Please model this.
Amino acid sequence: MRERLSDSSQSTEEVPSQAAWSFVGLRRVLGHELPNQLTALQGLLHLLHLEEKERLSEAGRDYVQRCLVLCQRWQRLLELLRSGLQGLLATPEDREDFVLSDVLPEVVAEVRQLLPARPPLECRLQLEVPKVRALRTLFPDLLRELVRDLGETLGPAGGEIHLCSQAAGAGVELQLTGHAAQAPAAAPAPAGRPRWAEQALLQDLAVLCGGELVRLSAAVPGYRLQLDGRTRFASTRTPVS
Amino acid sequence: MSEALRLFLVEDDDDIALLMRKGLQRAGHQVQGCRTVADALLVLGHASFDLVVVDQCLPDGSGLELLQALAQEGIPTPVLMVTASSDVQVATQALQAGALDYVVKDPSLTFLNDLPQRVHDAITRHRLQQLNRLLIAALESARDGIGITDLQGTFLHVNQALEELTGYSRAEICGQNPRVFKSGLHPPEFYAGMWQTILSRRSWQGEVINRRKDGALVDMSLTISPIMDSHGQLTHFVAIYRDIRERKQLERQLLHAQKMQSVGTLAGGVAHEFNNLLAGIQGYADLSLRDPNLPAQVREFLQYLLQLTARAAHLTRQLLAFARRPTLSRQPLSLEPLLRNTAELVRHTLQVEVDLQLPAAETPPLTILGDANQLQQVLINLALNARDALAARLPAETPAPNRILGPVVFALRPIALTRELPGFPDKVPPGEYALLEVRDQGIGMTPEVLNQALDPFFTTKDVGQGTGLGLSVAFGIVHSHQGFLTLDSQPQVGTCVRLYLPRLASHPPAPPVTFQTGEVLEPEPLPRHHILLVDDEEAVLDVMRRFLELAGHQVTCATSGRQALQLLQENLPAELIILDLLIPQEDGLTTFRQLRHLRPEVPVLLCTGLLQTNHHLALQEGAAGLLQKPFRMNELWYAVQQALSLRSSGP
Model:
């Protein structure tokens, strides 16, 4: 029997560091293992929902429907977490200037597909500052999630998402607001309860992109994103107070 | 003359000496003297002077001999030779012997007029030479690499440190431009900015990555300063290169640590949400399975769905393990029952023969501070690897039913290490350990495979046969228990994985380990109780409410601690509170204390998707129990039953 690493001449560099090991492991679990389980779970639920619907009781159909909604949320959290990890693995050199209008149409089209109700969704650009400095690989993810988040608040009738920007100090401030197609009744419709985990992950993504995210008031669903291009890796939030 | 010097005159002609002394004194200098070489050596050996003025012809020797004697004695006083002859040979010898200059005594004695100026010049030259030597010595002894260039950047002089830092010799660098060090990692604009700065007579400072002669990249801090002459004209640049590899390494480590902290924050918070969602899905699946008229195929689907959620919960735990968050509680744990239980599980589920080797009966219980579920996962992973290694040794044509695999040896024994052992990635330090071994006589590993065996996702198995996470997860778990792992293997002989877990002294053995049950059992009939459920996740609330109602309880739901407190203040007749410890923007422990303060007689059952330190405190302060999400509904029923029995048996 040969004792592993008994040769003291073996360089420690040959052994993956614990940190690298953890990152690779996380990426694997987030990028492969958990999505696989989720895909299988969703597939099974869709089968039950579509093929076995008639053989389920009314309560059973309701349970399946509820499970599907939970899976959708799970999927979104997984995507956000994956994006966060991607941001963490980025280097300061990955930050670059790019034209926002190059990114946005693709993001909007993608979001339109993602929203379950497929509401009519228009994105209006009011860009005064042509370039932003951010993590090029992560920024579309953040924007997609913000647009998606606002798209969900608009309800089935859809509406418009306005995006405007202005110079703010050395950086850029982006503001996204959702405007429902149907005018609200006497009082504005109550916004859905913001999901804590999604909100926290959006904050993290913004930090990793090189900015800060502020949720606007409940009356006007929207976000203000301040991008200053600074490199940050450590999220300032704590998961639980 | 601006500066008064201390001079020593060696002259045997008293008249000339007097004249020279007077002339020099008039110039403001202090003059002492003697007539012979011997006297001069005696005086100069004990007193210091700025300059010695020596006549070449002396009664007991020559000025040249005095000069040589001073050098031999290590007396550094500079010497100006004065001679009656204009002998070029003597002058040359004097200069070679270290004299600063020589003065010819002309017959008309005009040299006396020039002497003060010649003394001044000699001293000035001497001081410049000394300064020059000092500067060169300083340059050479500097730890930073220093190079002096002309205005085109061509190196004129470099020091030894720059040779060492770049790997190039002085001869190779001088005459070259600094681009010889270029790594190619900086864009042209970087260098353009640097040149623009220094040509505008400002210093440039920054960090560069340069390439050594051997091709290695070196992080350097670089400062380039312009050098101007007395007229303010730019003449040279001086570049100072500092090796910052160590600092950069520390920065990278810090960055890694920050990243890991962020990963922990990201993954930890979300894992709690994952567990909430899984709890909801499991609960709805369990509820669906209660339908007695469910067709067999649908039942099969739902059971498969439960398996998938269990696997997802397992992966979520791995996620937390990777993010180095404490996922499960550490408590005093007796290893023998754990090993017995796992061996039984492996025997039945993996269909391998397990040879269990336990410590002798009289050995005190081997207790560690650990997590039973995590350690069981390690043993199962290792057993799976052992099974595959055994199967790979069987002839391929052996029919599957005839495949008798084994044995896989599970061994446990105490061990006291008196010296270090090689381990992965750290050596196993001396100390008291519980040693868990998993051995097989399977196919074994080649040294190449062995060297990669603990790398995450390295696998020798076919696609779909394994993720490669087994050994690396085992390593991660053992490491998180402050334990160590060694791995021995030899092709066609077998493999032995040893886990060294630090022994816990003087702790009571842990309660028996509970393992997951299969089917959801019906709740035992209980008297109806009013239960207050506090959880921010609606699906979890909904599922728990439905199950508790099935068990006959009356349930009130609250989505926050604040709401729960308000309900109690409004006299809600709750007999049990089930509290999620991780409610956003609330401190679960504070909520727990407030609830206890308000209704000390009502037991509080805790549940959470992410165990943190506060659950220990809450349990110490009287919480009725802890449920970890995702949990099966029979676990909920059981925990509720236990908590309510505590209430009835309590004061």
